[in-house]
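Section 5.1 Outputs to date
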Amino acid sequence: MAKDLIKEADASPSPIAGQANAKNPPRFDDFENITNPMQIRNLRTGIPINIRRNRDFNSQNWQLRQFQLRGDLLKKDKLRDKWDFGYVQFVEPGKRDNCLAIDESGFLAIKSCLADLKSGKLETVFSIIPTSSGAVQIRSLVLDSNECLSMFDNPQVPEYRRIGILPCSLDFDFYIDTAELFFFTPPLTRASALKPKK
């Protein structure tokens, strides 16, 4: 279990997970380093990651929250020395404590961002690995921290739910399957034309 949890970012530009204690419980303002809404889409299918599948546009959008891991939490990342690209959570817009997570079932789910860090499971923590194409691999910190999000083929599962984790493609001598690559796009939201400058 992590001895420390979350601390306000002192001089750091992003919050630090792994350096608070029971006297200083997690605070939401520790996690304000967050982007505008966006979609996460698979390169092979173009399908966005969408857990809730309801009519609310925001249920298909995510916000990226960047932060640092320290102490016992950082030690759980067995690839941290070789693949040090930082850590993020994907947050449900308007719900600051709802994060994309790897469920025990292997499917994606939504879980409490802060409770996950407190438990030390790191099911909501990911690391974005850039590639030469501009697409990215999204590495999960569960298990041995060497698995990435990937689409999989299973006709028994609806296509939008066919995202799980498989070993990351980290060999420089081989190309990465497009099922393992993702890209970020503008959010699904109402849009209107912009007036040109006169």
